[in-house]
Amino acid sequence: MSDGAHAVITNAFPRWDRKLLFKILNNIHDVVMVIDSETTIVYANEAYAKILGVPVAKVLGRRLDKIEPKAAAIDLMRTGKPYKIGRDYLDSLGIDVVGSTFLLYDGNIIIGCVSIFKNITDVVELNRELQQTKGVADYLKEQLEQWEQLPLSFKEYVGQNSRLKETLVLAAKVARTDSTVLILGESGVGKEVLARAVHNSSRRKGMPMIKVNCAAMPEDLIESELFGYEDGAFTGAKKGGKLGKFELAHSGTIFLDEIGDMSLTMQAKLLRVLQEKEFERVGGNKTIKVDIRVIAATNRDLESMIEQGTFRLDLYYRLNIVPLTLTPLRERKDDLFELAKTFLKQFSGEVGHDLTLSPKVMRFFQEYDWPGNIRELQNVLEHASIVCSGKTIEIQHLPARIIPTHNDFNSEEKPYAVKEILARMEKELILSALDTYNNNRTNAMKALGFSRRVFYDKLLRYGIE
Fold this sequence. Notes:
The structure is a single chain. The protein is an alpha/beta fold. The protein is 46% helix and 16% strand. The chain is built from 20 helices and 14 strands. It has helices at 3-12, 18-26, 46-52, 56-59, 64-67, 72-79, 121-149, 162-175, 191-200, 219-227, 245-248, 264-276, 302-308, 313-319, 336-351, 359-367, 373-387, 418-436, 441-448, 452-461, and strands at 31-36, 41-44, 83-90, 95-106, 109-119, 181-184, 209-213, 253-257, 278-280, 287-289, 293-298, 322-325, 356-357, 392-393. A 5-stranded antiparallel β-sheet has the order 2-1-5-4-3, sandwiched between helices. It has a 5-stranded parallel β-sheet with strand order 7-8-11-6-12. The longest helix has 29 residues, at 121-149. The radius of gyration is 33 Å and the shape is elongated.
């Protein structure tokens, strides 16, 4: 035992026999540590080495304010507050502890400080796992309640478009890894559906996929939503704190939707999490490590945003490891009627009878640009299924905002222009094949299954150069 320890402790307890006092201290199962007025560690009991895994001889004579500047004992020595009871976090050892700390006096003079504590890291980790389980359950319940209020959404990709197939093949390959995925595409093309397909095909499929809509969150709330917060972190904070989306996604996947709408400040904070896989809750100082797979999505042109200074280049490189681009519906018209058929099957079950599209509606669908993509097609067909009283959906059953008014669709026109409809579809298929194979006519011809003579006849017929 050091002379300093004898001096500090026996000055505090002058009538006690030293051997008896130290015997008592060494038989305490909790850690007992004593520092002097200069914060030098002058005593640590045997439990110190057992619980913390650090030999007592290694810490005696060292200054606690250098080893653990945020320790409760240092706080008391600095503020003069006589004692503190509660939980603390030791940065130097990376453990959570709980106990009591109190100052030692000689008269009115502070001569040191005593800390008595135990390691509760396992308890804290267990509590965190329980919180995560409860948090995930609450999140899934919330998502289920929201889902019940939303229109139906298809559960898997439908179609044979070659560009879509290429994207799905790449998505299937990357799903087997833990690489970050960036999904690019216009609103309504099915980015979340693809994100779920990647998650459900990964080794993390048994764990949650937590979605974060970066565009829907107010700037002053997004940090606490992503990283969580501690008790009392800000006015209105939930008692006991709250886990953020990153902690809820631990061992699973976090889906950052509309990542292009995130502010530069949050982009910087997100970059650190993606690089280090760790963060601190709002109002806390404990570093929390997470094991997550990141999938991000946006309908923005991130490269243009980088040039404009509204998106970080380093974050772009961190996200853009495996980009997956989803084709807009206007560029995959060959899948249009298969998609429509899938949605009609769903809505037929709701209205109680089969639903089909009239030839006029089919022609209009083929010519319409679908700015809202698959989501718009789904909504249009849901509207029509409700308005239509029979089995055939006509032009007048479509939403008013898209009903055509030009002469091509007047009531005097022949309703069954099958040849014209098929010709337009065939032209679209040829253009799509040429685009897929970078205008290589030989490869496009083979993919379409045409002979050379038939292929060049159709190019001439449809005015394709």
